[in-house]
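pasting for the record
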Amino acid sequence: MKIAIIDDLIECRKDIESCLHKFFKKHYVDENIYIEEYSSGENFLCSFQKSAYDLIFIDQYMQELSGIETARQIREFDKLVILVFITTSRDYAIDSYQVRAGGYLLKPFSYDDFEQTLLLLDLAKLRNARFICLQNEKMLLREILWCDVDGHYIHIHTQQRGTLRYRIPFATISDMLLEYPQFLTCYKGCIVNLDNVDYLDELAFVLMSGDRILFSIRDRKKIENCYHTYLFQKAREEDLL
């Protein structure tokens, strides 16, 4: 998950970063988070691109461009990213709803305040809407059943669109998918989406679609452990949410 923190005070940025690491360690232990910090709305907007972030924390009171104005400009390009305002006053609470803010934290806040705000954001729904982009074509992660390599091409097997073929290195798709906990390498040149696995037999993953995806027999124990660890964590997250 890619997260931006926009605050002109470094101490506040570090407090948010610390709370984020604590929150994800507790609730989404398999989730990789990438945090980028900005000292002003202007600095952030200079490099901002649509769909670049899943979650953005914005301080309302900054020296130049305000948090609300920063949020308005973000919304011109990205209608879906989750915005959380952090401020010392409730005066701008109504304005925050005009830019469809997902949360509102009042300084000084405790970790418990932070945790409750993030739990209300429904991050599980956000994760379900994730996608990758290959050669200007967007694809939801949940669509992907598995992908494998065939010479200079990769095949991405999907639920809705059948098998998609791209002439790109397998390392490219590996780097995209393996940062997400639901994707697991079966053998060199093959990755499966564990969310679409029905069960594991002696030789293969059996998908809900009926497809059987073989895995390395040599690595069976490791693969089995990874699969059951993922199932446990997924069930735990569902219980917590």
